[in-house]
Amino acid sequence: MNLDGGAETRHVKRVLAAIAHDAAVSNPKSGSKRNRVPRTIEASWRRCVLSHGIEPHKVRQPVILSHVEVTPLRDRFDVLKSIFAPELDRLHERLAKLDYVVLLANADGITVDVRCSDEIDKEARDSGLYPGVIWKEDFQGTNGVGTCLATGQPISVVMDDHFAIHNTPLTCTVAPIYSPDQELIAALDVSTPRPTDHQTQQLVMQIVANAARRIENQLFMAHFQSGHAIVALSQDSRFSDLASATLLAMSSGGRVAAWSPAAKTLLDPVIERSTMEYRLQDQVDLFIRTRAEGEEPIVLEDVTSGRFFARCLSDGETVQRQKSGPQARAKPRARQEPTSKQISEVIVGADPVMERNFALAARIVDAGLPILVTGETGSGKEVFAKHLHRISARAKGPFVAVNCAAIPETLIEGELFGYRPGAFTGAAKSGYRGKVAEANGGVLFLDEIGDMPLELQTRLLRVLSEMELTPLGGAPIALDLLVISSTHQDLEALVAEGRFREDLFYRIAGANLTIPPLRARRDRRLFITEMFEGLCDAAGRDLTLTPEVLHLFETYPWPGNVRELQQILRYAIAVSESETVELTALPARLTAALEPRAASSHKTETERLVIEQTLKRCHGKVSAAAELLGISRSTMHRRMKRLGVKR
Ligand SMILES: Nc1ncnc2c1ncn2[C@@H]1O[C@H](COP(=O)(O)OP(=O)(O)OP(=O)(O)O)[C@@H](O)[C@H]1O
Predict the structure, then answer these.
(1) Rounded to the nearest whole angstrom, what is the distance from the C-alpha of residue 496 to the centroid of ligand 1?
(2) Residue 378 CB–ligand 1 contact under 6 Å
(3) What was the pLDDT predicted at 221?
(4) How far apart are the CA of 569 and the centre of ligand 1, in A?
């Protein structure tokens, strides 16, 4: 790189002036867009000096990890090779002719994978565009990868936007990649050593951001598609590209269990969640129905006041990862209801609370008492309610579930008690007799009863007291059904707050059974291994859990209970390539939540490597290494002592 002393002085002055808010120097041709320092860049320069303690004239050379050090870091992404690699190839194919290099950096800013053509290989290497280079902002100052990771936002760092003078020949456009748990896991970068400008980079940004979105969406589908219906929302009715779609995972209860990382910002302010859930559930039902009839699933318009089209991509029973977008739909598989073995062995297991629940259930189920099942979300309340139905005298009758939280207040009355033909816009032409009437002779399962609006509680109370239903415009019909209600809320507290009718509470809680959270089950280990084996059988895999994974599973608090366990197991089974399920096959939130020490030791390890490498480069000279790292000699000594690094 040939930069004369004058250029260096000008660059340093410009950076310092911007930090000091000296507009005249930082924007010499004020009004000229070309010279204006973008705000994000200015903020990063300020961060470099004030937070990272780097000075623009003490430029560090990049710190580089060896092949041996980079391999394990890259292996983490290898688990998801089938998702990352094709996108890197595709991006490179598009941009290679324009002399761009494609890089993937991990959350620590270390380049773990690179695509570069032979023509610019040497230049790319000279500019530090190869595996093992650490691009963290606090090491290298403002740069594409480092600043993207520092802010969590896409960014273009064009030539002298860079903080370090040796990086100014480069231009980097980078988009962050978030995991299905909304964790920042990587940065996708395209860099060129050729001169360019911000305007051109805006176009490049579109391409990079789309590639990052496609990766996020594929990770999301791999994570959620077993067990959830996946619905895509797009402003483009043709759904021509997975990148243009926003994905939602719908639980079997019809709730939105998760949004793809980009969805949150896009949707939150726009729509009322429960209304959307109700309409999306329609789309899932439509998908299942039309597919069963061999038709192309229909696109439902206007699920969100005209802004988006919805299209169900899978109904939660497909296990194969969709490789090339919405059109390549995986073949459906038989539904994974818990088997009778799971009901008798996994559910009962050796947990004393569940054993009591089962014994009690057998005694009360036909005693004419309404049953209230309580427990944390995902703990298996509905599974238990279905078990009650199965062992009851009404087993041959229907089991009709109504999710009181998923249906908008305005529609729930019609849903429960029926409506006349054409009663409201969108009502079925033939009218609807309602879930209560449908459940007659069987079980009516009122899920999330704590969310039922007060007015409706009054009507429900009347129906349950009289056990009689008068359909609109029809004669009263006598009801013979078992009402099982469920909630994760403290109903008695809701009663005390006046949000739930006390008389209804007594009417539905003839008997109360509580499902323990997964973390409190004494048979947790057995439960986990049995469920794992069942899911392995269903997936046709013969896998074992390593002791570390089993230990993690036993100690993790499982806030999402059995539902969360099921998803994690399905994901681990899908991504495990060898015969064992290793810690690397688990989502980061699991390992991170439980092993703060391991996470920080990973950080410390990176720091140690950096200090060792720098010392090596400086032939063991502490002052020179400190200078190169941009820290004082005493800080360097302190760090060496803390990390046990010898000269
Ligand atoms: N004992 C079990 N055996 C096998 N699978 C189970 C068991 N308990 C729960 N599951 C699975 O866990 C998931 C959540 O279960 P379920 O819907 O019954 O929970 P819930 O407590 O009703 O949840 P929510 O509070 O969200 O309504 C389902 O996919 C279900 O199949």
Answers:
(1) 29
(2) yes
(3) 85
(4) 14
State which fold the 67-221 domain adopts: Beta-Lactamase (3.30.450)
Pick the CATH number of 596-643 from 1.10.287, 1.10.10, 1.10.357, 3.40.50: 1.10.10
Residue 465 near residue 504, CB atoms below 8 Å: no
- Which is nearest to 132 in space by CA: 610, 629, 618? 610
Q: Which residue has the higher pLDDT, 611 or 426?
A: 611
Pocket of ligand 1 contains residue 386 by CB under 6 Å: no
Of the chain, the percentage scoring pLDDT greater than 70 comes to 74
516 ligand 1 Cβ < 6 A: no
Kindly report, residue by residue over 403-461, the tens digit of the pLDDT. Answer: 887 777 677 777 888 776 655 555 455 667 788 989 999 999 999 999 888 888 988 89
Best residue among 377, 563, 571 to mutate for probing ligand 1, ranked by most atoms within 8 Å of CB: 563
Identify which of 222, 232, 204, 389 has the alpha carbon closest to the alpha carbon of residue 297: 232
| Ligand 1 pocket residue status of 319, Cβ below 6 Å | no
Nearest-atom number in ligand 1 for the CA of 562 is 12
Between the two ends of the chain, the Cα-to-Cα distance in Å is 30
What separation in Å is there between the alpha carbon of 444 and the centre of ligand 1? 17
pLDDT tens digit sequence for 304-321: 444 566 677 777 653 232
Q: Is 405 in the pocket of ligand 1 (CB under 6 A)?
A: no
Query: Which are the contacts of 381, defined by CB distance < 8 A and separation ≥ 6?
Result: 373, 374, 375, 447, 486, 488, 515
Of 294, 306, 296, 322, nearest to 233 by C-alpha is 306
Q: Output the CA 381–ligand 1 centroid distance in Å.
A: 6
| Segment 526-563, tens digit of pLDDT | 889 888 888 888 888 889 999 889 888 988 888 889 98
- Check: CATH 3.30.460.80 for 520-594? no
Query: Hey, what are 593's tokens?
Result: 């939540």
